[in-house]
Every structure is written in structure tokens, then in C-alpha cells.
Model the fold of this input.
Amino acid sequence: MSVSLPQHCPMTQFDVEDDCLLIGGMPLTRLAEQIGRTPFYAYDRQIMTRTVERLRRTLPEEIKLHYAVKANPKPDVVGHMASITDGLDVASAGELEVAVGAGTPRECISFAGPGKTHGELARAVAEGIVINMESERELTILTQLATETGTRPQVAIRVNPDFELKTSGMKMAGGPKPFGVDAERVPAMLDALANQPLDFRGFHIFSGSQNLRPEAICEAQQRTVELAVELAGHAHTSIRMLNIGGGFGIPYFPGDAPLALEPIAENLGELLPVVRKNLPDAELVIELGRYLVAESGIYVCQVLDRKISRGEVFLITDGGLHHHLAASGNFGQVIRKNYPVVVGNRVTGAAREKASVVGPLCTPLDLLADRMDLARAEPGDLIVVFQSGAYGLTASPTAFLSHPAPAEVLL
Ligand SMILES: *Cc1c(COP(=O)(O)O)cnc(C)c1O
Done:
């Protein structure tokens, strides 16, 4: 039996046995005993593998699948993702170290991000990874580094296109943006790098995140390919890499449904001949973070106190926004909505009630569930927040209020 939640879409990736959630084949209560403390994050590697397998089955075979490390940079998670995807995308020197530690071939690691320091660029050159340049300044520094080190760094240009990924949770392209080089400035940059000791690979065009509308993703992919073909006309060498971004979303909130992959696969199938004809040497890459890992993870905290305030039930837990900012609604959400939450050791629970789950912090922002339909819980019960495998711990202000950091386990 999988987990069904009122209002939210079912969490079919998890089974339930004797009304207790199973993760990694183990009852949650046993896992909590093994870890010996709460709160904790637990990630199930088999769920990640199944997600990647589903993508591979559905999308055209030629598409390379990269994992964006920032979604979950825990080293053993990155190690697992490296073993089942075709490459890793990093966004800092810290992530670069993790990616190199995962044993990924250097040419399969790419480094994007505005504001790379001289030290980070030097590190990337020394490691021989692909650097997605986000400005003319980066081109200048890389040219100097190439000359100084006598190497030929692999570079790509991250392009800020003149369109956006519509209805995205986070828009990262189109209009004025700090990310990438405006498309209209790319031809001049291609001229500038032509005679430099740089190995130009191609383009990186990432337009947004957390999108649940296949038609928006298809439109962005189509325009991305058109733009890349146009820009390739200004390049002095052939294009060997085209990273068309990702943006695949997962269902977090009431009313969300899982992203339909079939229309995206069909659209990519139609774009591939265009790429083959116009960019015959290009490898087509999509990069996904949350889609690959978010559903594999849960955040678990323990009920410390049960309070009734003027008729409303508050479950006060040892976990909160300092560990899981996104579930509290404070990581980019415009209107706060509840993540899928259950009482993990009484998933269906015969007795139910409307309750709010809060953390120990002295701020009303520390809210994990706002008046949700939950099994009636008591101190000692385990609260589970689903869809927590991406942008969880490392996207949270763990130092706020000086509580201990949660444990993290990969199962
Ligand atoms: C954040 C980011 C990603 C990952 O986004 P998801 O929504 O997790 O898939 C991929 N590429 C770039 C350049 C990013 O900044």
C-alpha cells in the first residue's frame, strides 16, 4: 500500500506496513532507532535509480542526463547519482570537490554559476572540467589562466536567452538576468575567444526550475535549440555540447500532479533531427536536480509537545525551518502551501484531526504544516515531510537559533 494524502497527490514511491512508513525497505520507527536521534533526513537510493530509469526509458536514448549537484550535495548521494547519470553540474568549488571525489570523468563535469572567483576558475582549469562562462570577465580570466598554465581549458558559454520558461517556480532566464551572457552579446564573445587557447565546447542555456507544465518545457526546449543553431552560426568551431537545461518539476502542493514525461520525450524526438542536421557534432544534455532526487527523500522530526491553543492543535517538534526552509514556505514560495506531511508511525491513523506542525524556533515562520488533516499524534510520534530529497538541509539556515544539525542517511 502506498501513501495517500488528502489533497496532495499520492506518494507512490513509499510503501506502508502496519500503518508505519517504510523507507529503504525498513519501517521508519526502526530506522529512527538505528539513527538514535531525531530530526534526520533519509534518502532512498533505489527511488533515485527508478527515477533515472524511467527517464532513460521515456526520453530519446541520445539525450545525456546530468545531475545538478546543488539539489543535494551530500557526497554519497552525489556518488550514487554519478554512477547512474552521464555527468554532474556543479556551481561552486565546494561542489566541484564533491563531484571530483565521486570519480566522474572530468569532461563530464561542468561548472556554471555567476560570480566565480579567480580561485574557483583556477581550480576548475586545474581539474580540467568544462567551465560554463557567465560573463566576459570569466573569459578574460580563463584566457590568462590558460596562458599561465599552458593548458587549453574546456569552456562553454552560458547564454541568457531572450525568452523565458513560462510558469516556472523560478525563472532564471529571459529579460535582464544575472545569469549567463545575453544572447545578443554572444556573437562578439565567440569572436573574442576564437584565437585564444581555449577549447570551446558549446552552449549552456538553462531557463528555469520546478515546472509542471510539459507544454512550457517543450516550448522552451524548442526555442533553446533554435537559439543554439542561430548562435552556432557565429562560432568559429563546431558545437560539441548543447546543454538545454531542465526545469522538470515535482508535485509538492495540494492540486499538483506529476509532470507528464511523454510529451517532453516526443518533443525532444522532434528536436533531435534538427540538432543532428545543424549541430552534427553536438551532444545534447539536459540537467536535472530536484526531479532526480527530491522524491527519494524524507525529513523526519519528533513530536515534543502537543498544545491546544484556543481550540487549535499544535504539534511542536524538534525539527523546523532551520533544517527545512523550503517546507516552511520560505524558500522562494510566493504563497505558503503545505508540503505533503504525515505522521510516519500512524500513516492512516484511525483517529484524525486538523493540526499544525511547528518547530522549536521563536518565530511564526517556523511552520511545517498549517492546519493539515493528520493522524492524531502524541509526543514521541514521528512527523514525516515528503518530497525532501532536494533543497532540504543545504538550503536551510542551520545556524539560526543554534540547534543541533539533523542527521542525514542514504539508504
Ligand atoms: C539550480 C540549477 C539546476 C537544477 O534545478 P532543478 O530545479 O533542481 O532541476 C540546474 N542547472 C542550473 C544552472 C541551476 O542553476
